[in-house]
Each structure stands twice: as C-alpha cells, then as structure tokens.
C-alpha cells in the first residue's frame, strides 16, 4: 500500500540514472526520454552547465529570503526581460503560481474581475488556475469555482467579441495548447484579442509555461506572431529540472505589485535561480534556437512522411520541438507500447501522442524515435 496520495497513475518505471535524452530504470532498461519531465528538461537530464552552476550555489548558501538584496535574481530577471521585451519579473516556484500571480495582478491593475480563457486550455491546479482552466475534468468534485472566469472556444473570433465587456480584466491564452492536444493559435484570433484589449483596456496574459524557454524555437512562442502581451508566465523549462516559475509583466504594472501585495517564501530561491540563469544563457542563444527550429522541422516532416498513409493517424501538428500526433484510437495503449520499445512519450488528451524531446536531442535520437513511432502506429488498426 503506497503512502502517497494516488493523484498520479504512475508508470511502472523507476529511474535510476539519466543523462541528456536518456534515462535508465532500476531494472537496467534504457529509454529515449522524449517527455523531458513534461517539458521541463529542455537541456536534457543532468545538464553539465546547469549542474556546475547549481553546485557552485550549493557550496555558498541555499536560501535566505526575499528581504535580502539579490543580484543573481536581478541578473536572471534581466535575461528574461531582455528576451521578452517586458519590464519586470516576479519569481515563484511553479506554473500554477506564476498564473496565480498573473490573475491577481490583472485584477488589481485593472480594478476589474472577469478573466476570459479558452476551452481545452490548461493553466494549473490551484483554485484560481483550476477555475481559469477550460476543461471540466480538472474541476470535478471541487465545488464552487472562483467566479468571473468566462470560456470561449480557442481561435473563435466571434465568441471572443461576444464575451469581452467593460468588466473584463484580462484574456489569458496559450500560443500552443499543450495539455489540450497541441493546438496552435491563429494570428486572426490574436488580432481580435489585440483589438478587444485596446477597446476595453484588457490585459493580454500569455501562458508560456509549456511553450516558453525555447521549446518552439523562439525564447517565447508569442514571438512567432504579431502580438504584444502585457504579462507572460513561465515555469517548466526555466530551471531545467529545479523548481522555479515566473510572472513577467510590463513596466507600468509594477506600481500595482508593491511591497506586501504578493509574495512567496521560496520564490527565486538561490539554487533554482542559479539553474535558471545557466539554462537561459544557453537556451536564448540564437544558434541554439535555430537548431531547435531545424530539429523540429526535421521531426515533424519525417513524421508526416512516415505516417501519411496510416489509417489511425488523424492529424499531425506542432511548433518547434512540441509535436502532437492525433489518432482516431486512444493514445495510451500506443504510449505503453512505445515504452516497451524503449521510447518515452506523453499523451495530450485521449487521442494525441505528444512529443517534447529535450532541445539538445540529436539526429540519431530523432531517427530512432521516428522509426519506433512509425513501427508502433503502423501496426495498429482503427478501433471503433
Ligand atoms: C500551459 C500550462 N500552464 C500551467 C501549467 C501548470 O504548471 P505547474 O504544474 O508547474 O503548476 C502547465 C502544466 O502542465 C501548463 O502546461
């Protein structure tokens, strides 16, 4: 009998060691890990640069509090503001906390309450972020949700126009819906968001928790489009495995988040900050990001080529190294069969196989993944 709350259906794989794109389990099986700890290990397992930075910090001090001056937080924040064009950073420990901060700031800065999000979105598991999430399944059994969230179908301009009003504080979106099945936003929808935000004084919050930190081949996925967010939220890849999140906002929002308005004991912890600084110095390099785009194009093109005539494949979608293969069949049996073949992948919703390789992966590994996925998916017949 486990002593853990059974909140996860855990896989029957216990990691022993992991390095780069590879994970070896306690029973000695070696896996190509294209889950990256759910989009966290953008530089792969046990990255040496991050490890050295963390070890250096561990040898000095581990934690103080945010009452102390902190030049390392400042330096890491400026890497984020320089790459995003935004003005200020609030450090926290997770994606949900980053979104929680964004929701609080948007309400305080605008003096309004309503937040519009999209159906099939995912924004976290705290009370506000669960309410923000446009999926009923995450809310079941938790009673009355935090009020004043409205949901519109993703990319539905007419629904957006109908939903915005004088009480709308913010519109919160993902550029690629990750948990919702790897769906990309359309420029037309972003144009409508921009028009509405200008008309009603609405803040645009972009949740970059899964898409940020180089995952799509730009520092942040919004940079593939014409849109200027007021706030972005990041976490996952930010610390390459150490827990850290951040809410990043325009300069003019700073006056609404003064002393005493918001906080976090562990937010911006020196060890996590050391990991984030080292990670960002690698990921935000132009050459590194160009390679992400090249690898992403190679992977999606090869998947298209290999799976185009397979009956159970419905659609292949992606951006950079964030790729979804939508099937007519359930994804879970395919995920389990890929595990037997030594490949770790994720699902996104019931029918989508989701690939989130480390951004440092190489062609040999990509080819291995393509070969195994083709073999497993090609062996399946449609299940009605
Ligand atoms: C887009 C998005 N937002 C928010 C979250 C929540 O992040 P965390 O699990 O770190 O709280 C996730 C996690 O999967 C996510 O994908």
UniProtKB/TrEMBL annotation:
This is Acetylornithine aminotransferase. It comes from the Bacteria. SUPFAM superfamilies: PLP-dependent transferases (SSF53383). Signal peptide: none annotated. It comes from Peribacillus huizhouensis. It is an enzyme of class 2 (transferase). The keyword Transferase applies. Keywords: Amino-acid biosynthesis, Aminotransferase, Pyridoxal phosphate, Transferase. Belongs to the class-III pyridoxal-phosphate-dependent aminotransferase family. Its EC number is 2.6.1.11. Its cofactor is pyridoxal 5'-phosphate. Gene3D superfamilies: Aspartate Aminotransferase, domain 1, Type I PLP-dependent aspartate aminotransferase-like (Major domain). Pathway: Amino-acid biosynthesis. GO terms for molecular function: N2-acetyl-L-ornithine:2-oxoglutarate 5-aminotransferase activity.
